[in-house]
Amino acid sequence: MTRPEQDTAGRPRAPVIQRLLGDPRVAQARLGKRIGRLPYFTRVESATAPITRMEGRDILNFGSNNYLGLANDPRVIAAAQEASARWGAGVTGSRLLNGNLALHEELEDALRRFYGRTGAMVFSTGYGANLGLMSSLLGRNDRAWVDEEMHASVLDGVWLARANMKRFGHNDPEHLLAQAKDDTASGLCVVEGVYSMRGDRAPLRRFLEVCRETRLALVVDEAHGLGTVGARGLGTVEEDGVVQDTDFITITFSKSLGSCGGAIIGDKDQIEALRVLTRPFLFTAANTPASVAAALSALRILQEDPGLVAQLKERVRSLREALAARGLRPIPSDGPIVSVEVGADFDTLQAWRLLWNRGIYANPVIHPAVPAGHGLLRLSVMRTHEEQMVRTVADACADVFSDLQLSQEGRGKVAS
């Protein structure tokens, strides 16, 4: 007989558990659920496509990172199915011990060739790739110079290394130079090719010059740049001509490649050193065969047809023009993330809810992901969006800004 479900509410709770449950973020999440305004952990009930089944409804999806639409490509799905049939559902261990499939090495070889570098190292997640790189490269007395809008995976990796984290202004290489030029400690600089919240791109050529002057290693996270920027889709490193000059490039498979996993790309000797030193790599179960095969298939499709990148860029241009025609001013960028500043967190959540009520899914970005008072509506463009879908979401955004009396310049409430 199955025992009835029960929790530990009637038992004394240890102080650490009391602290866990008393965290203000937990209280906010509970409140959001009660009033129906929690825009996170939305239940998805179909494959991620322009029209996605969510919470029992067919929703126009502008909140997905399936930029090239390859997560739904029959060739990618078939590759995942064939890999599962051959290799099994999982590898049941780390690559160090029993999970280093020929398939993993094949993907590493394809990635290094794609970027024209001599080494690549595949991880179970993109988060793990950044966590592993930071914690392996940095020591207790090193400096990690990090853009103020950097992804949490990099921040956590720096904390794991117990290095000294130094923040510089967003996309501001001159601020980095002013702080780092007289600092003699060893270290590195980390930037994103395309930033995940605002969608803007880093000026990589200038960052490279500053890093050379200050003897810092340069790491570029191309999670959102892979498949979306550059003629061949290598990312901002390609667009700015620094593919060979950047010390390390990190990527994820969960966006343009439509799978799950990540990688570090760089020089062979450096990658081989990381392979035996990186704890989040050595002691984590390897990627499932299906996820590796899917990423490899998607990468080959991108290599064979770089025109997919141009098609995505055309959709992005179309959305930006449609928003501008309706008086909205998205943050300048040519990447796949089109963000419009709303302002206060409450207004941002209200805007998200109004879009949801109209059958449109977007991502509300609030503090601490962005500075307080600078909440964003983030629209992620897929190559497979149709022109009518672009016009529909632009019309809806304009109506929402009007209904909430928001400034169309993205500066919060219209002054009364």
From TrEMBL:
Top-level taxon in the UniProt lineage: Bacteria
Residues of the Aminotransferase class I/classII large domain: 58-395
Gene3D superfamilies associated with the record: Aspartate Aminotransferase, domain 1, Type I PLP-dependent aspartate aminotransferase-like (Major domain)
Co-factor(s): pyridoxal 5'-phosphate
GO molecular function: pyridoxal phosphate binding; transaminase activity
Keywords in alphabetical order: Aminotransferase, Pyridoxal phosphate, Transferase
Family according to the record: Belongs to the class-II pyridoxal-phosphate-dependent aminotransferase family.
Organism: Corallococcus carmarthensis
Protein name: Aminotransferase class I/II-fold pyridoxal phosphate-dependent enzyme
Origin organism lineage: Bacteria, Pseudomonadati, Myxococcota, Myxococcia, Myxococcales
InterPro entries on file: Aminotrans_II_pyridoxalP_BS, Aminotransferase_I/II_large, AON_synthase_class-II, PyrdxlP-dep_Trfase, PyrdxlP-dep_Trfase_major, PyrdxlP-dep_Trfase_small
